[in-house]
């Protein structure tokens, strides 16, 4: 009789691991402490809850995020299945109705005959049997202590932040225009243009606004791909114009010209009743968020249903602790997956959950675990987090992690597409040969 695999954490990575194992006939105990014990960022007990943006990023194979999603679908991803089912307009990106998406994951896993969901904080589960640790960047104190005990290493950490959400009916539609950058996807975004004077007024209010203080013993370290907007602004008055407020690829139909700056709002649910402020991750106090963000044209009377929050993300020193199979070097019966390994982003976290599931199933059935080809996005990501390096930091998937083509190809778009075609071909062969 096959032993039960314990999966700790019901986020994207844990859900993917449990789903893969269950569909391969392996019994799974999935431990999730929510809703009894919430994290500073979660609001529900749903599996796979998205706590930051509702976007899973680019869909096109010319983008590394698009490639990673395609590979996940080839590996039977539940995240991608539910995302496709509950996608909402977002130009060239794949965005989802966050509640319906998470409910889809929850119902599928809870109703699977091979999965038992245990709704309490995990305790003493790292000491025996096959375990996948996918507790995420907001691991509870007890599981963090257990991880610290087995790794004999201090956690690294950085700060992550979530953007505010406003109601659609509170937006002043006289001051916005619908468009996606460079016309991709039609009018999927609401764009709030600002002239130079409006931008400067907003900028000055932003950099002077009061933030929530961090603990005195914690050093603030931001991940560049998810930096609080106020921290970005303090780098200089022009910084936001090359970041989330850049007007590139947009024409204001009222002037026929690009605006001086623009704030984009992205639909956050299927009904289109909620919109999030793209790139506005923040640690401002809630009253300050209301005051400062209401200076954005079209948001003067905005109703904020969720203010931005900032929280500590922890991750282990994977290059020193993990094999490319995501097994813990000192105890190969323990796997790690998700953001706690040092990958950054929803799909990156979810994809490592699949890899941990693949290799846990093989160990259960007496087979050797697999190292995925480095030419694939999933293989390149696992290689990045486990290869020796100094100053290990979280990383999104990008083509820079994947070996270049043998023949030089002119043009970034064409080169990236050929890298994706090669990766998907490699993965397809690998799946068939290894019976994944």
Task: Summarize this structure briefly.
By secondary structure, the chain is of the alpha+beta class.
Largest sheet: 6 strands, mixed
Class by SSE composition: alpha+beta
Overall morphology = globular
From the alpha-carbon coordinates, what is the Rg to the nearest angstrom? 22 Å
Indicate the CATH architecture of the largest domain.
3-Layer(bba) Sandwich
Structural commentary:
α1 (12-23) links the parallel β1 (5-8) and β2. The two termini are 21 Å apart. With 436 residues, the protein is an alpha+beta fold. The protein is built from 12 helices and 17 strands. The protein is globular and about 65 Å long. It has 2 domains: 5-155 and 316-434, FAD/NAD(P)-binding domain (3-Layer(bba) Sandwich); 161-312, Elongation Factor Tu (Ef-tu), domain 3 (Beta Barrel). The strands form 4 sheets. The chain has a 6-stranded mixed beta sheet, with helices on one face. The mean pLDDT is 91.
């Amino acid at each position: 009789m096959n032993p039960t695999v314990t999966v700790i954490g019901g986020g994207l990575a844990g859900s993917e691991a449990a789903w893969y194992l269950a569909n391969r006939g392996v019994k799974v105990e999935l431990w999730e402490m929510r809703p009894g014990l919430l994290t500073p960022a979660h609001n529900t007990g749903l599996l796979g809850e998205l706590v930051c943006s509702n976007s899973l990023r680019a869909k096109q194979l010319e983008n590394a995020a698009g490639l990673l999603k395609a590979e996940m679908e080839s590996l039977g991803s539940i995240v991608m299945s539910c995302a496709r089912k509950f996608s909402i307009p977002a130009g060239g990106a794949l965005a989802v109705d966050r509640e319906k998406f998470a409910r889809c994951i929850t119902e599928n896993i809870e109703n699977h005959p091979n999965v038992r969901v245990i709704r309490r904080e995990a305790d003493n589960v790292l000491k025996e049997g096959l375990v996948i640790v996918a507790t995420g960047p907001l691991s509870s104190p007890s599981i963090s202590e257990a991880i610290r005990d087995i790794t004999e290493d201090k956690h690294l950490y950085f700060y992550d932040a979530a953007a505010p959400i406003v109601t659609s009916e509170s937006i002043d539609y006289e001051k916005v225009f619908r468009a996606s950058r460079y016309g991709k996807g039609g009018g999927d975004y609401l764009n709030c243009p600002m002239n130079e004077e409006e931008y400067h007024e907003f900028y000055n209010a932003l950099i002077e606004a009061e933030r929530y203080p961090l603990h005195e013993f914690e050093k603030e370290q931001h991940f560049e791909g998810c930096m609080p907007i106020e921290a970005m602004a303090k780098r200089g008055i022009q910084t936001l114009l090359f970041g989330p407020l850049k007007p590139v690829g947009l024409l204001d139909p009222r002037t026929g010209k690009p605006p001086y700056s623009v704030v984009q709002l992205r639909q956050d649910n299927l009904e289109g009743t909620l919109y999030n402020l793209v790139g506005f991750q923040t640690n401002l106090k809630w009253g300050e968020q209301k005051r400062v963000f209401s200076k954005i044209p079209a948001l003067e009377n905005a109703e904020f249903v969720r203010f931005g929050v900032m929280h500590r993300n922890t991750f282990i020193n994977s290059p020193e602790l993990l094999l490319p199979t995501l097994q813990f070097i000192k105890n190969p019966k323990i796997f790690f997956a998700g953001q706690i390994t040092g990958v950054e982003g929803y799909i990156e976290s979810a994809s490592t959950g699949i890899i941990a599931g693949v290799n846990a199933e093989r160990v259960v059935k007496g087979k050797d675990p697999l190292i995925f080809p480095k030419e694939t996005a999933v293989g390149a990501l696992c290689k990045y987090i486990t290869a020796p390096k100094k100053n290990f930091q979280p990383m999104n998937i990008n083509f820079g992690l994947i070996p270049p083509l043998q023949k030089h190809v002119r043009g970034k778009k064409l080169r990236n597409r050929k890298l994706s075609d090669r990766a998907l071909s490699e993965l397809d062969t690998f799946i068939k040969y290894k019976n994944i």
